């Protein structure tokens, strides 16, 4: 264990939070030498593009996850931060690699605001030396971001393995934002000094490959780890389209009603102000529900299928033993019917059969703020054949 890792593990006691934070939930920080170099799966991965997009997330960890004590410690000590990860999933949608290629930290003093975006990324000890406290906060943010990324499971990509990017922005006043982008985002734009004290989600590009494919922003209480509210920002079909209006899911609204206070600003913590835990966060004004389809992911869950139609296996494809998985991107209207289906991963002799079947599927309507909304969702159609009979035995 490095000296910085010992600080990250033992320093929690020095903050005076031992009574309120559980050390058993604190995952061991990653070693500095494990942060920087790509592995073999990333080396062979394709970049995410509109034709080979970031697939739908099947499971997303809801904060606070087990390593949330890392963010709580950093917040109470007055640190805000941002991390840019390069994430690689394999052909099944499992996260195989997640490594930082950018980190930004702003501490109790404005002079500590620093953004470093390099590939490979130097270790926090190298970046922030000799400031061990800021280096520890940077490692906390990196560890949390990697843990969050590795707990996600995605649908199989159209062509894998596939690499894309995730951005985490955590502010000392209790705002946590997680965004997924095709290309790398410039952390200097996402995490300027003004972002540290802002109560709004960070500003991302609205067009181009670095615009978020999906983004969720949480308000939470650093003293308790309680999530007070969540906002999901839906993306359009292609990465070049602007992010749609923000929406609040029904589950987020339920969490919001339970309360949970936001922490003070960085200046208040630096001055020794205690983190409040009593007052509840007021219910936010319900935003307008978007009319453009929003992509399933984050707090927008995949709907339940109510009508399934099996594809008709083309006879010529069966005869030639053509089989495999066709991936489609579907648009589902407010009544739960599929209005459009386009092929993301093709098996040419099976595509038409897959599209014809999927267009007959029906789902429960997806609701945001109690109002049905159209959605975009990736689906798979699996064509499989039984094993061919064994050849006849030769005559005796």
Structural account:
Strands 1, 3, 4, 5, 7, 8, 9, 10 and 11 form a 9-stranded mixed sheet that branches. A 4-stranded mixed sheet has the order 12-19-14-15. The protein folds into 2 domains: 3-290, no CATH class; 305-383, TolA/TonB C-terminal domain (2-Layer Sandwich). The longest helix has 19 residues, at 132-150. Strand 17 and strand 18 form a beta hairpin. It contains 10 helices and 19 strands. Helix 1 packs across helix 5. With 396 residues, the protein is α+β, with helices and mostly antiparallel strands. 20% of the residues lie in helices and 28% in strands.
Q: In DSSP terms, counting alpha (H) and pi (I) runs of 4 or more, how many helices? A: 10
Rounded to the nearest angstrom, the radius of gyration is: 23 Å
Instruction: Indicate the structural class.
Output: alpha+beta
N-to-C CA distance: 69 Å
The mean pLDDT is 74
Integer count of domains: 2
Secondary-structure element string: HHEEHEEEHHEEEHEEEHHEEHEEHEEEE
CA-based shape: elongated
Percent in helix = 10-25%
User: Biggest sheet, in brief?
Assistant: 9 strands, mixed
- Low-pLDDT stretches are 1-35, 235-289
Task: Please specify the SSE layout and strand pairing.
Layout: H1 3-14, H2 40-43, E1 46-47, E2 57-59, H3 68-76, E3 80-89, E4 95-106, E5 114-117, H4 124-128, H5 132-150, E6 153-154, E7 162-171, E8 175-181, H6 187-190, E9 212-221, E10 226-233, E11 246-247, H7 250-257, H8 266-270, E12 294-295, E13 305-307, H9 315-319, E14 324-332, E15 338-345, H10 351-358, E16 362-363, E17 366-368, E18 371-373, E19 375-383
Parallel strand pairs: 1-7, 12-19
Antiparallel strand pairs: 2-6, 3-4, 3-7, 4-5, 7-8, 8-9, 9-10, 10-11, 13-16, 14-15, 14-19, 17-18
Helix pairs in contact: 1-5, 3-5
